[in-house]
């Protein structure tokens, strides 16, 4: 292969999974944050403690970090 042909070969860019971008956020320290489960509907029957527990975000489990890194290759993680 000629020198000019070698210069034209580049690694392909990886695509970011758009649904993962919408579901997961990165904290300032690089933690992956997600929404708690079971907060879409049937929430009127919950007492105050259950409602507060569903609000906000929580950290993603460590064993799922590798999968998220593959879905979002250009995001900043620890």
Structural category: alpha+beta
Determine the mean pLDDT: 86
CA(first)-CA(last) distance: 40 Å
DSSP helix fraction: 25-40%
Major sheet characteristics: 3 strands, antiparallel
Principal-axes geometry comes out as elongated
Q: Could you say how many structural domains there are in total?
A: 1
CATH topology: Factor Xa Inhibitor
How many helices? The count is 4
Instruction: Return the string of H and E elements.
Output: HHEEHEH
The count of strands amounts to 3
Please describe what this structure looks like.
With 78 residues, the protein is of the alpha+beta class. The protein has a single domain, classed as Factor Xa Inhibitor. The chain contains 4 helices and 3 strands. The chain has helices at 3-8, 18-23, 48-54, 65-71, and strands spanning 25-26, 32-34, 58-59. It has a 3-stranded antiparallel sheet. The chain starts with a helix and ends in a 7-residue tail after the last helix. The relative contact order is 0.22.
Describe this protein with a few key phrases.
single chain; alpha+beta; three-stranded antiparallel beta sheet; 9% strand; elongated; Large ribosomal subunit protein bL35; Ribosomal_bL35-like
Condensed summary:
The protein has 78 residues and is an alpha+beta fold.
List the helices and strands and how they pair.
Blueprint: H1 3-8, H2 18-23, E1 25-26, E2 32-34, H3 48-54, E3 58-59, H4 65-71
Antiparallel strand pairs: 1-2, 2-3
InterPro entries: Ribosomal_bL35, Ribosomal_bL35-like, Ribosomal_bL35_CS, Ribosomal_bL35_sf
Organism: Candidatus Yanofskybacteria bacterium RIFCSPLOWO2_01_FULL_49_25
Biased composition (Basic and acidic residues): 43-53
């Amino acid at each position: 292969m000629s020198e000019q042909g070698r210069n034209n070969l580049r690694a392909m860019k990886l695509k970011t999974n758009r649904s993962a971008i919408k579901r997961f956020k990165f904290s300032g320290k690089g933690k992956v944050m997600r929404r708690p489960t079971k907060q879409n509907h049937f929430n009127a029957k919950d007492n105050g403690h259950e409602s507060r527990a569903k609000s906000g975000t929580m950290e993603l489990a460590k064993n799922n970090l590798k999968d998220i890194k593959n879905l979002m290759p250009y995001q900043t993680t620890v």
